[in-house]
Amino acid sequence: MSSSDSSPSGNTAKILVPLDNTKISEEVLRFADSWAQETGSQLLVMHSRTAAVQELVDQGELIDPQEAFDERVRNFPLHSECEIHHRFGRPSEVILRELEEHQPRLVIMAAHSHTLLGRLFLGSTTDTVLHKGHTSVYVYKRASLDPKEILVPVDLSAVSVDLLKEVDEIAMRRNGRLHLLHVMDLPEVHLVSSGGAFYGAITDSRLIRRQREEYQTFGMQRLKGLLGQVELRAPVELHVDFGTPYLRILGIAQQINAGLIAVGAHDHSTLGRVLMGSNTDYIVHHFEGSVYVHKEPAAPEAEPMRLGSVE
Hints:
Layout: E1 14-18, H1 24-39, E2 42-49, H2 51-58, H3 65-74, E3 82-88, H4 91-102, E4 106-110, H5 116-132, E5 136-140, E6 146-153, H6 158-174, E7 177-184, E8 191-194, E9 197-201, H7 205-227, E10 236-242, H8 245-256, E11 258-264, H9 270-286, E12 290-294
Parallel strand pairs: 1-2, 1-4, 2-3, 4-5, 6-7, 6-11, 7-10, 11-12
Antiparallel strand pairs: 5-12, 8-9
Helix pairs in contact: 4-5, 5-9, 8-9
Protein backbone atom coordinates (compact mmCIF):
# COMPACT_ATOMS: atom_id res chain seq x y z
CA MET A 1 0.00 0.00 0.00
CA SER A 2 1.25 3.47 -0.85
CA SER A 3 0.87 6.75 0.96
CA SER A 4 -0.89 9.75 -0.49
CA ASP A 5 2.46 11.33 -1.37
CA SER A 6 3.57 8.52 -3.64
CA SER A 7 3.13 8.66 -7.39
CA PRO A 8 0.78 6.32 -9.25
CA SER A 9 2.30 3.20 -10.74
CA GLY A 10 3.03 3.67 -14.43
CA ASN A 11 0.01 3.39 -16.68
CA THR A 12 -1.97 1.11 -14.36
CA ALA A 13 -5.70 1.75 -14.55
CA LYS A 14 -7.02 3.45 -11.43
CA ILE A 15 -10.25 3.20 -9.46
CA LEU A 16 -11.22 6.15 -7.27
CA VAL A 17 -13.01 5.13 -4.07
CA PRO A 18 -14.34 8.06 -2.00
CA LEU A 19 -14.98 6.86 1.57
CA ASP A 20 -16.37 8.34 4.76
CA ASN A 21 -16.81 6.98 8.26
CA THR A 22 -20.09 5.19 7.65
CA LYS A 23 -20.47 1.44 8.06
CA ILE A 24 -21.10 0.82 4.38
CA SER A 25 -17.61 2.12 3.56
CA GLU A 26 -16.09 -1.26 4.46
CA GLU A 27 -18.41 -3.00 2.01
CA VAL A 28 -17.52 -0.50 -0.71
CA LEU A 29 -13.79 -0.93 -0.09
CA ARG A 30 -14.10 -4.71 -0.19
CA PHE A 31 -16.09 -4.52 -3.42
CA ALA A 32 -13.61 -2.07 -4.98
CA ASP A 33 -10.68 -4.27 -3.96
CA SER A 34 -12.27 -7.25 -5.68
CA TRP A 35 -12.87 -5.16 -8.83
CA ALA A 36 -9.26 -3.95 -8.78
CA GLN A 37 -7.93 -7.49 -8.45
CA GLU A 38 -10.03 -8.73 -11.35
CA THR A 39 -9.01 -5.86 -13.64
CA GLY A 40 -5.41 -5.32 -12.49
CA SER A 41 -6.24 -1.80 -11.32
CA GLN A 42 -4.89 0.41 -8.54
CA LEU A 43 -7.14 1.82 -5.82
CA LEU A 44 -7.13 5.51 -4.97
CA VAL A 45 -8.91 5.64 -1.62
CA MET A 46 -9.97 9.20 -0.90
CA HIS A 47 -11.18 10.83 2.31
CA SER A 48 -12.31 14.45 2.38
CA ARG A 49 -13.12 16.88 5.14
CA THR A 50 -14.89 20.19 4.94
CA ALA A 51 -13.55 23.52 6.17
CA ALA A 52 -15.91 23.32 9.17
CA VAL A 53 -14.45 19.98 10.25
CA GLN A 54 -10.90 21.25 9.79
CA GLU A 55 -11.70 24.30 11.91
CA LEU A 56 -12.82 22.05 14.76
CA VAL A 57 -9.60 20.04 14.42
CA ASP A 58 -7.49 23.21 14.47
CA GLN A 59 -9.32 24.42 17.58
CA GLY A 60 -8.67 21.13 19.36
CA GLU A 61 -12.38 20.35 19.60
CA LEU A 62 -12.13 17.33 17.30
CA ILE A 63 -9.49 14.64 16.98
CA ASP A 64 -7.79 14.71 13.60
CA PRO A 65 -9.50 11.88 11.65
CA GLN A 66 -6.61 11.37 9.22
CA GLU A 67 -4.55 9.02 11.37
CA ALA A 68 -7.54 6.86 12.31
CA PHE A 69 -8.67 6.68 8.69
CA ASP A 70 -5.19 5.70 7.48
CA GLU A 71 -4.91 3.00 10.13
CA ARG A 72 -8.33 1.58 9.29
CA VAL A 73 -7.51 1.34 5.58
CA ARG A 74 -4.04 -0.10 6.18
CA ASN A 75 -5.45 -2.75 8.50
CA PHE A 76 -8.10 -3.69 5.96
CA PRO A 77 -7.33 -6.99 4.16
CA LEU A 78 -6.67 -5.46 0.73
CA HIS A 79 -5.18 -7.53 -2.06
CA SER A 80 -4.59 -4.76 -4.59
CA GLU A 81 -2.26 -1.77 -4.68
CA CYS A 82 -3.71 1.21 -2.87
CA GLU A 83 -2.99 4.88 -2.29
CA ILE A 84 -4.69 6.99 0.38
CA HIS A 85 -5.55 10.56 -0.51
CA HIS A 86 -6.70 13.15 2.05
CA ARG A 87 -8.39 16.20 0.58
CA PHE A 88 -10.16 19.30 1.86
CA GLY A 89 -13.43 20.73 0.57
CA ARG A 90 -16.95 19.71 -0.36
CA PRO A 91 -17.00 15.99 -1.28
CA SER A 92 -18.38 16.51 -4.79
CA GLU A 93 -15.85 19.23 -5.63
CA VAL A 94 -12.98 17.18 -4.21
CA ILE A 95 -13.99 14.11 -6.21
CA LEU A 96 -14.18 16.12 -9.43
CA ARG A 97 -10.68 17.50 -8.79
CA GLU A 98 -9.39 13.98 -8.22
CA LEU A 99 -10.96 12.85 -11.49
CA GLU A 100 -9.27 15.65 -13.38
CA GLU A 101 -5.89 15.08 -11.75
CA HIS A 102 -5.67 11.27 -11.82
CA GLN A 103 -8.16 10.37 -14.58
CA PRO A 104 -9.23 7.02 -13.11
CA ARG A 105 -11.06 4.49 -15.18
CA LEU A 106 -13.90 4.20 -12.68
CA VAL A 107 -15.38 5.76 -9.54
CA ILE A 108 -16.96 3.40 -7.02
CA MET A 109 -19.06 5.19 -4.41
CA ALA A 110 -21.85 4.30 -2.03
CA ALA A 111 -25.46 5.34 -1.91
CA HIS A 112 -26.12 5.39 1.80
CA SER A 113 -29.84 4.73 1.92
CA HIS A 114 -33.13 4.97 0.10
CA THR A 115 -34.70 7.31 2.63
CA LEU A 116 -35.54 10.89 1.73
CA LEU A 117 -32.43 12.02 3.61
CA GLY A 118 -30.36 9.45 1.77
CA ARG A 119 -31.65 10.69 -1.57
CA LEU A 120 -30.84 14.28 -0.69
CA PHE A 121 -27.33 13.25 0.32
CA LEU A 122 -27.01 11.20 -2.85
CA GLY A 123 -28.12 14.21 -4.85
CA SER A 124 -25.55 16.51 -3.33
CA THR A 125 -22.55 14.32 -4.16
CA THR A 126 -23.23 11.42 -6.51
CA ASP A 127 -25.50 13.43 -8.78
CA THR A 128 -22.85 16.12 -9.15
CA VAL A 129 -20.21 13.54 -10.05
CA LEU A 130 -22.55 11.84 -12.52
CA HIS A 131 -23.43 15.09 -14.29
CA LYS A 132 -20.11 16.92 -14.24
CA GLY A 133 -17.55 14.13 -14.31
CA HIS A 134 -16.18 12.40 -17.40
CA THR A 135 -15.61 9.05 -15.70
CA SER A 136 -17.78 5.95 -15.38
CA VAL A 137 -19.45 5.65 -11.97
CA TYR A 138 -20.52 2.54 -10.07
CA VAL A 139 -23.10 3.51 -7.45
CA TYR A 140 -22.92 0.75 -4.84
CA LYS A 141 -26.05 -0.15 -2.92
CA ARG A 142 -26.60 -2.83 -0.32
CA ALA A 143 -29.48 -4.99 -1.58
CA SER A 144 -30.52 -8.64 -1.52
CA LEU A 145 -30.78 -8.93 -5.29
CA ASP A 146 -29.13 -11.33 -7.74
CA PRO A 147 -25.77 -9.80 -8.77
CA LYS A 148 -25.58 -12.18 -11.73
CA GLU A 149 -28.66 -10.72 -13.43
CA ILE A 150 -27.62 -7.50 -15.17
CA LEU A 151 -30.14 -5.28 -16.93
CA VAL A 152 -28.76 -3.12 -19.74
CA PRO A 153 -31.18 -0.55 -21.20
CA VAL A 154 -29.96 0.46 -24.66
CA ASP A 155 -31.07 3.12 -27.12
CA LEU A 156 -29.13 1.56 -30.03
CA SER A 157 -26.69 4.49 -30.32
CA ALA A 158 -22.90 4.23 -30.56
CA VAL A 159 -22.81 4.66 -26.79
CA SER A 160 -24.71 1.37 -26.48
CA VAL A 161 -21.88 -0.49 -28.23
CA ASP A 162 -19.28 0.93 -25.83
CA LEU A 163 -21.53 0.14 -22.88
CA LEU A 164 -22.01 -3.47 -23.98
CA LYS A 165 -18.28 -4.07 -24.29
CA GLU A 166 -17.74 -2.86 -20.74
CA VAL A 167 -20.72 -4.59 -19.16
CA ASP A 168 -19.81 -7.87 -20.89
CA GLU A 169 -16.56 -7.83 -18.88
CA ILE A 170 -18.56 -7.28 -15.68
CA ALA A 171 -20.90 -10.17 -16.51
CA MET A 172 -18.01 -12.52 -17.26
CA ARG A 173 -16.35 -11.74 -13.94
CA ARG A 174 -19.64 -12.46 -12.14
CA ASN A 175 -20.53 -15.49 -14.24
CA GLY A 176 -23.64 -13.46 -14.94
CA ARG A 177 -26.24 -12.92 -17.62
CA LEU A 178 -27.05 -9.78 -19.60
CA HIS A 179 -30.60 -8.62 -20.25
CA LEU A 180 -30.68 -6.11 -23.09
CA LEU A 181 -33.77 -3.92 -22.95
CA HIS A 182 -35.02 -1.53 -25.62
CA VAL A 183 -38.01 0.60 -24.57
CA MET A 184 -40.18 1.99 -27.36
CA ASP A 185 -43.09 4.40 -27.50
CA LEU A 186 -46.54 2.84 -27.33
CA PRO A 187 -48.11 2.15 -30.75
CA GLU A 188 -50.37 5.00 -31.80
CA VAL A 189 -54.13 4.48 -31.91
CA HIS A 190 -55.55 6.29 -34.94
CA LEU A 191 -58.77 8.24 -34.78
CA VAL A 192 -61.57 7.57 -37.26
CA SER A 193 -63.01 10.56 -39.09
CA SER A 194 -66.01 11.26 -41.30
CA GLY A 195 -66.30 14.32 -43.44
CA GLY A 196 -63.17 15.79 -41.92
CA ALA A 197 -64.46 15.48 -38.34
CA PHE A 198 -62.97 13.02 -35.86
CA TYR A 199 -65.66 11.21 -33.93
CA GLY A 200 -64.07 8.16 -32.33
CA ALA A 201 -61.03 5.95 -31.84
CA ILE A 202 -60.22 2.54 -33.17
CA THR A 203 -60.62 0.22 -30.20
CA ASP A 204 -60.31 -3.08 -32.05
CA SER A 205 -58.08 -5.12 -29.75
CA ARG A 206 -56.86 -7.20 -32.70
CA LEU A 207 -55.55 -4.10 -34.48
CA ILE A 208 -53.84 -2.82 -31.34
CA ARG A 209 -52.30 -6.24 -30.71
CA ARG A 210 -51.11 -6.47 -34.31
CA GLN A 211 -49.51 -3.02 -34.10
CA ARG A 212 -47.81 -3.96 -30.87
CA GLU A 213 -46.48 -7.19 -32.40
CA GLU A 214 -45.11 -5.26 -35.37
CA TYR A 215 -43.34 -2.82 -33.04
CA GLN A 216 -42.04 -5.76 -31.00
CA THR A 217 -40.61 -7.42 -34.10
CA PHE A 218 -39.03 -4.17 -35.23
CA GLY A 219 -37.49 -3.62 -31.81
CA MET A 220 -36.05 -7.14 -31.71
CA GLN A 221 -34.52 -6.66 -35.15
CA ARG A 222 -32.83 -3.48 -33.96
CA LEU A 223 -31.48 -5.23 -30.86
CA LYS A 224 -30.09 -8.07 -32.97
CA GLY A 225 -28.50 -5.48 -35.25
CA LEU A 226 -26.80 -3.96 -32.21
CA LEU A 227 -25.53 -7.38 -31.13
CA GLY A 228 -24.02 -7.77 -34.59
CA GLN A 229 -21.73 -4.82 -33.83
CA VAL A 230 -20.14 -6.30 -30.72
CA GLU A 231 -18.98 -9.79 -29.77
CA LEU A 232 -20.38 -10.68 -26.36
CA ARG A 233 -19.17 -13.67 -24.35
CA ALA A 234 -21.77 -13.58 -21.57
CA PRO A 235 -25.24 -15.14 -22.04
CA VAL A 236 -27.75 -12.60 -23.39
CA GLU A 237 -31.52 -12.26 -23.28
CA LEU A 238 -33.34 -9.63 -25.35
CA HIS A 239 -36.33 -7.62 -24.14
CA VAL A 240 -38.52 -5.08 -25.93
CA ASP A 241 -41.04 -3.09 -23.91
CA PHE A 242 -43.29 -0.06 -24.33
CA GLY A 243 -43.90 3.05 -22.28
CA THR A 244 -41.94 5.52 -20.16
CA PRO A 245 -38.29 4.34 -20.21
CA TYR A 246 -37.35 4.69 -16.54
CA LEU A 247 -40.62 3.12 -15.35
CA ARG A 248 -40.28 0.14 -17.66
CA ILE A 249 -36.59 -0.26 -16.79
CA LEU A 250 -37.46 -0.52 -13.10
CA GLY A 251 -40.36 -2.84 -13.92
CA ILE A 252 -38.24 -5.27 -15.93
CA ALA A 253 -35.47 -5.09 -13.31
CA GLN A 254 -37.97 -6.23 -10.70
CA GLN A 255 -39.24 -9.05 -12.91
CA ILE A 256 -35.76 -10.54 -13.46
CA ASN A 257 -34.51 -9.67 -9.93
CA ALA A 258 -31.62 -7.72 -11.46
CA GLY A 259 -28.82 -6.87 -9.04
CA LEU A 260 -27.29 -4.29 -11.36
CA ILE A 261 -28.57 -1.85 -13.95
CA ALA A 262 -25.93 -0.63 -16.41
CA VAL A 263 -26.66 2.47 -18.47
CA GLY A 264 -24.71 4.67 -20.86
CA ALA A 265 -24.40 8.45 -20.61
CA HIS A 266 -24.32 10.10 -24.00
CA ASP A 267 -22.25 13.23 -23.61
CA HIS A 268 -21.42 16.06 -21.31
CA SER A 269 -23.36 18.77 -23.11
CA THR A 270 -26.33 20.48 -21.52
CA LEU A 271 -28.70 18.39 -23.65
CA GLY A 272 -26.90 15.19 -22.68
CA ARG A 273 -27.22 16.04 -19.01
CA VAL A 274 -30.93 16.72 -19.38
CA LEU A 275 -31.46 13.41 -21.18
CA MET A 276 -29.46 11.58 -18.56
CA GLY A 277 -31.44 13.35 -15.88
CA SER A 278 -34.79 12.12 -17.14
CA ASN A 279 -33.91 8.42 -16.98
CA THR A 280 -30.56 7.68 -15.35
CA ASP A 281 -31.09 10.03 -12.43
CA TYR A 282 -34.44 8.44 -11.66
CA ILE A 283 -32.94 4.95 -11.82
CA VAL A 284 -30.00 5.86 -9.59
CA HIS A 285 -32.36 7.25 -6.96
CA HIS A 286 -35.14 4.67 -7.10
CA PHE A 287 -33.56 1.33 -8.02
CA GLU A 288 -32.84 -0.79 -4.94
CA GLY A 289 -29.69 -2.32 -6.41
CA SER A 290 -26.43 -0.91 -7.72
CA VAL A 291 -26.21 1.21 -10.87
CA TYR A 292 -23.27 1.39 -13.28
CA VAL A 293 -23.17 4.55 -15.41
CA HIS A 294 -20.75 4.15 -18.30
CA LYS A 295 -19.06 7.22 -19.75
CA GLU A 296 -16.45 7.53 -22.43
CA PRO A 297 -13.42 9.62 -21.37
CA ALA A 298 -13.68 13.22 -22.50
CA ALA A 299 -11.77 13.95 -25.68
CA PRO A 300 -8.85 16.32 -25.14
CA GLU A 301 -9.62 19.87 -26.10
CA ALA A 302 -7.89 21.14 -29.20
CA GLU A 303 -5.21 23.73 -28.57
CA PRO A 304 -6.20 27.22 -29.71
CA MET A 305 -4.84 28.28 -33.08
CA ARG A 306 -1.84 30.57 -32.72
CA LEU A 307 -1.74 33.35 -35.28
CA GLY A 308 1.51 34.98 -36.24
CA SER A 309 2.00 38.71 -36.12
CA VAL A 310 1.11 40.72 -39.17
CA GLU A 311 3.93 42.85 -40.54
